[in-house]
Amino acid sequence: MKFRSKIIDVGCLNHFTRVVNTVSKLTKSCVLRLTRDHVYFVLSGKISTGGVSMWCELLQVNFFDEYQMEGVSADANEIFLEVTPENLSRALKTAQNAKSVKMKLTKKNCPCLTLAAELPSLSSVSRVVTHDIPVDVIPRRLWHDFREPQMPDFDVSIYLPPLKTMKSVVDRMKNLSNYLVMEANLKGDMNLKIETDLVSVTTHFKDLGNPPWGDDGSQTVSQSRDDDLMAEVRVDIRKLQQFLTGQQVNPSKAMCNIVHKRILHLIFLHEDVSLQYFIPAVV
User: Fold this and answer.
1) Considering just the CA atoms, what is the radius of gyration of the chain in Å?
2) Which one of 3.70.10.10, 3.40.50.2300, 1.10.10.10, 3.40.50.720 gives the CATH number of domain 2-146?
3) Cross-strand partners of 232
4) Among 24, 84, 161, 283, which residue is least crowded by beta carbons within 10 Å?
5) What is the CATH architecture assignment of 156-263?
6) CA–CA distance, 22 with 141 (Å, rounded to integer)
């Protein structure tokens, strides 16, 4: 089992750093899945017990100038590592002006993801800063727990409003309640609501648009559903705020799917990154 990669392009390094920073804001621990073509950050929470789930997918060729990996075997050419993304984020912060950054899987006192940043130097001798980030190698028998989550059979899919605006609204609502109701319909309308014994507040968004899932055959919303009918989900407002606060991916498309009273499925798409986040409903 081997992994070795190198980033030279500063734009790619900054982009990768933003992705890792986003992941580090969402979870203290996650699984780093390495395949020949992709890099994944996976959080496999149990929706049934109130846990959130995350699936972040990167096309490696758009980030790494060099990328070599050998999985556990020829028929299972993948590597699964449990990692603390905050540790990786801190290491990358020291490499922002680096001439190159190398990452490889090493064996020190324990398995490590070793990051070596070659920093600019006034002399002919280069300076290299090395970080050994402890990881746990996940055995193959547990890999099935970290596969891509299936797209839920949603009732409504809708584009999100500008994320800064949405974050501002959620930040203010958090001071009034621990829970938020998000509702939307197939006419591009979305409402954010909080209701307590003392106050009821609703923010309305109009003409957001609905993603055309049926055009590519990936999924269709029930054709029998009334366009005006709202689907809603009540979620822990802190989990939604954490997602909006932590994101640094700068998505070209941001949307959500609502499974009525069950799941809020948030999707951020960039040309070379996709981030999915599942927040279960609370009663």
Assistant:
1) 21
2) 3.70.10.10
3) 183
4) 283
5) Box (3.70)
6) 29
